[in-house]
Amino acid sequence: MLYNETTKKMIIKTKHAKSHLQKAIGLMFSCKKKFDYGLIFDMGKESIIGSSIHMMFVFYPIFVVFLNEDKVVVDAKVAKSWRFYSPKFPARYVLELPTKFKEKIKEGERLVF
């Protein structure tokens, strides 16, 4: 589960992309109707380039949240198909969510998963 420690609210159930293959595929070729969870990527260390994502073959917009090692939101944006995205500041974790959650998470908030 994803919990916003700053606002003290549960947000959504989560899944972890653990293997290199899961991280490479992410949400590619997935169905928007079945995307009702948060997908968490642990990039291993804080980085701007290392936490960048692509939206190739993801045919719907998603809400992307970049978190530092302390799980504090350093950047958040709606990502559209066929583009690349990098955080404004180094991030260790990338969280992909349905766009309806864009109003529930703000920069500077601490998330727990």
Overview of this protein structure:
It is a single chain. The protein is mainly beta and 113 residues long. It has one domain: Protein of unknown function DUF192 (Jelly Rolls). The protein is built from one helix and ten strands, in the order βββαβββββββ. The strands form three sheets. The protein has a five-stranded mixed sheet with strand order 3-4-9-6-7. The protein has a three-stranded antiparallel sheet with strand order 2-1-10, with no helix packed on it. A two-stranded antiparallel sheet has the order 5-8. The mean pLDDT is 97.
Any idea what the shape is? globular
Low-confidence runs of at least 5 consecutive residues: none
Number of helices: 1
Name of the CATH class: Mainly Beta
What is the multimeric organization of the chains shown? Answer: single chain
CATH superfamily: Protein of unknown function DUF192
Q: How large a portion of the residues is in β-strands, by DSSP E? A: 35-45%
Radius of gyration: 13 Å
What is the terminal separation in angstroms?
6 Å
Strand order of the largest sheet: 3-4-9-6-7
Coarse structural class: mainly beta
Domain tally: 1
